[in-house]
Amino acid sequence: MTEIHPTALVSSQALLDDTVRIGPFAVVEAGAELGPGVVVQAHAVVHGSASLAAGVLVGVHAVVGGDPQDLKFDPRTPTRAEVGAGTVLREGSTVHRSTGNPPTRIGSSCLIMGSAHVAHDCRIGDGVVISQLTAVAGHAEIGDHAVIGGVSGIVQWVRIGRMAMVGAKSKVTRDVLPFTVVDGVPACHQSLNFVGMRRHGHTAADQMTLRRTFQALCRGDAPSAAPPGELARELDAFLRAPSRRGVSAFTEQSRATSTTSTVKAGV
Which of 40, 56, 65, 152 could tie 170 with a disulfide, CB 3.0–4.6 Å? Predict the structure, then answer.
């Protein structure tokens, strides 16, 4: 049976699964959709534009589905924000609805840490971690299992590839390649994310072929044909896809690391 604290304000026109729990002074507006096992903690706000899949946790004072911070946006436009199954939105985090179709989307099993912000029209993949006080601006895309360090800023329309890692306090103004590590102001490519690849079960052989592709990019050589190896082909496809921002620069450290790093088998 749905558990709603007596001080919570929940619209009769919200769609709630029978297993939803809503804490003290929380607000759930008409049109909101809350799936099985969703928990909305004290003082959180779920606007009518929000759809929360099974097992989502909305932390204390978090806000989901707020209006876009876009001066051109008409608040009467019916748009949505969707949060995938098992995602955790920690205290004070904010997720804004889109300016049109498709909706703002956060995937499954993500962790959006305290006071982080995901703006309108963002596309966040599965298993993404966005750390404390990070701001992701409108229309940004973050691939599956990427990790964004705390107090970072992601500029509008930036693409961050799958399994990339962004160092804390970075300013990401250009695209980040899959399987790489970026850091700095502005953020630049530092190395490949060998630790992340091992943790997700990618073989040493595939990492080696990816390293050769990364070495070529560090030298400024664009691949003339699709390289061998699953990961290298994915990186190449990311490079060939449309981009509004271009690709983040490569540092001298990345050139040295791409030559000297050791690829280890196993986890």
Answer: 152
According to DSSP, the β-strands at 135-136 and 153-154 are parallel
pLDDT (tens digit per residue) in 208-220 = 889 988 888 888 7
Q: Which two tokens stand for residue 101?
A: 């179709």
Which range among 9-13, 176-180, 200-204, 225-229 shows the weakest confidence by mean pLDDT? 225-229
Phi and psi for 229 in degrees, rounded to 5?
95, 135
pLDDT per position as a tens digit, 71-123: 999 999 999 999 999 999 999 999 999 999 999 999 999 999 999 999 999 99
Angle of CA points 15, 16, 20, to nearest 5°: 160
DSSP-derived 3-state class of residue 239: helix
Sheet holding 141-142, edge to edge: 15-16, 33-34, 50-52, 81-83, 104-106, 123-124, 141-142, 159-160
The C-alpha atoms of residue 152 and residue 166 are separated, in whole angstroms, by 8
pLDDT at 197 over 60: yes
- Which pLDDT score is estimated for 222? 64
Q: CA–CA separation, 183 vs 187, rounded Å?
A: 5
Which residue, 63, 48, 55, is CA-closest to 19? 55
Specify whether the CB–CB gap between 112 and 93 falls below 8 A: yes
User: Which residue, 58, 114, 59, is CA-closest to 83?
Assistant: 58
- Rounded to 10 degrees, the C-alpha dihedral 186/188/194/200 comes to 50
